[in-house]
Amino acid sequence: MNLRTTKPFIKWVGGKSQLLGQFENYYPKEIKTKGIQNYVEPFLGGGASYFYLAEKYGIKNAYLSDLNKDLILTYLVIQQKAEILLDFLEQYQNIYNSTEQEKRNDLFLSIRKHFNEQKYEINYKKISENWIPRAAQFIFLNKTCFNGLFRLNSKGEFNVPYGKYKTSTILDVENISSVSKLLQNAEIAHNEYSSCFSKITEKSFVYFDPPYRPLTKTANFTTYMGTIFNDNNQIELAKFFQKIDREKGAKLMLSNSDPSSVNPRDKFFEKIYKGYKIFRVNASRAVNCNGANRGKISEILVINYA
Question: DSSP of 98-137, one letter per residue?
Fold first, then answer.
């Protein structure tokens, strides 16, 4: 397949769709020559990198995981129950389109309330019929909430407000179908990132896209899981990166923020990834309450190969 057509089925803060053209310069050459056909991504999020590589180069097998239970639930529903999910999404699309603009906030809040209440009835360990309407709600809320954020409060409740969009594409039959096909070769799991260790061999490519280190003290985005991924967590991840490099010999790539773009003396990542290659790519910051602070900013890529 020469043209990339599949895209993430959700909006996701920190999603990598805009960076894939730059990433192409840093992916290991073995991906392109079929020397690597096992892909591992333990902070899955929107999955832009996986969809890109799976579609463009063909990935024979993948291990994809994330700690967000409803995100993984939705991936599994798309993988295994896509046709039924599309029926639910069509219903939500029709309801949204037929609801008057001034009443859409009430519609959004009612679905958000049900989504938060329903979580106590979900067995996240085993796929069942009630996963399908929940996945549909997850996609509806993502497509209609403010900026496509997924944020949980300390009680584990989704608390993002309505986005006030005139139009929202809740139903995308072609893309959901394409995503489902690309997920057939993947093992999808709700797990800590460390769970990927047993899935990695020397012929694996592992891509880490953890919660980014805040560039300022006020920039903490709380959060996909209701908790903060702090500096200690970043250091533990760096140790895990080194462990895989040392014991598995896999090709590794990691994304994160670039603290030196705000404070040139901040060499946090240079210290914890000492000995590895660090490159910088340009990204657009999309989520900021102050519009004047949105724009181009550099991010880092850490790799362990030539």
Answer: HS-GGGHHHHHHHHHHHHHHHGGG--TTS--TTHHHHHHH
